[in-house]
Amino acid sequence: MDGQWYDAEAGPLVRPYAMTGGRTKPGPHGVRFDLIALVVVDPEAAGARDEALLGPEHRTLLGLCRSETQSVAELAAEADLPVGVVRVLLGDLLEAGHVRVSRPVPPAQLPDERILREVIEGLRAL
Questions:
Q1: How open is the CA angle 50-55-56, to the nearest 5 degrees?
Q2: What is the pTM of this model?
Q3: Left if phi > 0, otherwise alpha if psi is -120 to 50, otherwise beta: which for 118?
Q4: Which residue ranges of the chain lie beneath pLDDT 50?
């Protein structure tokens, strides 16, 4: 062995704390990203010039969000990054104004299925 302690197929090894600068929580505002929070690139965000200043992981997340709205869990899976790292990186992107985050409607606020069925039956009766 030539002193390497990892497999060549593993690719470059970057520790999660290196990607986040040692941070474990997103942003100074304490923003919390649920796994189902939806992330989309802000169309009013600054141009590609500002993106050049971002790290490669930040740019990867932006690229994934450009194609379609993605949840935090989907971004973590697609980027092959731990969810905690993705949350911190998204906090950076949110603070810089590159992305917008929305939360789906909680199930408790959705209309009752029984009511929806009655509306459908009423429409069919017309």
A1: 115
A2: 0.67
A3: alpha
A4: 1
